[in-house]
Design goal:
Structural class: mainly alpha
Pfam families: MIP (PF00230)
Subcellular location: Membrane
Order of helices and strands: HHHHHHHHH
Main location: membrane
Number of strands: 0
InterPro entries: Aquaporin-like, Aquaporin_transptr, MIP
Largest sheet: none
CATH architecture: Up-down Bundle
CATH class: Mainly Alpha
Number of domains: 1
Number of helices: 9
Protein name: Aquaporin
């Protein structure tokens, strides 16, 4: 139970701190330069949680990461569903907290500003958004599996993971707002509106697709030192 509670708390912190940079911090109004602030908010949140709850649960904070870790053979099947449910609960509670903050405050952006989507910008077709989210997740999960392998793990592993997430945000914010994490997308979408809910499927399917590929690669031993 400690591990599940840690995943819920860690995901809450990730979604709250990352999305708060858009909703309350105002970085969403400062794009493209504001993307740096958003990217650092998500990246630093991952770094913080990696060291805070990593020893307890592994600090997945992401159903795609959990899927990749399981498929690589590093996690028992009995923990997969509880981890994912805990992450979704944490992300939803974070979105609820941000929704409460935004109510009645004209200086704070609505939660819809932090929801993932690609149709509103009209710059990228659905296949492109799907491919980039899947590729971004593949890269992210592969890095996690690589730096957390027993023969590779160092005190800097959490830093590498967080900086990788920050870089991916810098690349994907203009396309989808950057998800690569179904729990990060589900929570805000629930409090955003019909348009965001209609697009939510992509931010579940694409990250899981990328994670599955990364997990299969990890199982082959490709990421293990000879």
């Amino acid at each position: 139970m400690k591990a599940y509670a840690a995943e819920c708390f860690g995901t809450f912190c990730l979604v709250f701190l990352g999305c708060a940079s858009i909703i309350a911090g105002g970085f969403g109004n400062l794009l493209p330069l504001g993307g740096i602030g958003i990217a650092l908010s998500f990246g630093v949140a991952v770094i913080a949680m990696a060291y805070a709850i990593g020893p307890v649960s592994g600090a997945h904070m992401n159903p795609a990461v959990t899927a990749g870790v399981f498929l690589s053979g590093r996690m028992p099947a009995r923990d997969v569903l509880p981890y994912i449910l805990a992450q979704i609960v944490g992300g939803t509670l974070a979105a609820a907290a941000l929704w409460s903050i935004a109510q009645g405050n004209n200086a704070v952006a609505p939660v819809s500003r932090a929801a993932n989507g690609w149709e509103s910008a009209g710059l990228y077709p659905t296949p492109t958004a799907f491919a980039l989210e899947a590729l971004g997740t593949f890269i992210f999960v592969t890095v996690i599996l690589g730096v957390t392998a027993k023969k590779h793990r160092t005190a800097l592993s959490g830093m590498v993971i967080g900086l990788t997430l920050a870089v991916l945000h810098l690349c994907l914010i203009p396309v989808t707002g950057t998800s690569i994490n179904p729990a990060r997308s589900i929570g805000p979408a629930l409090f955003a509106g019909a348009r965001e809910m209609n697009q939510l499927w992509l931010f579940i399917a694409a990250p899981l697709t990328g994670a599955i590929l990364a997990g299969i690669l990890g199982r082959t031993g490709f990421l293990e030192r000879a």
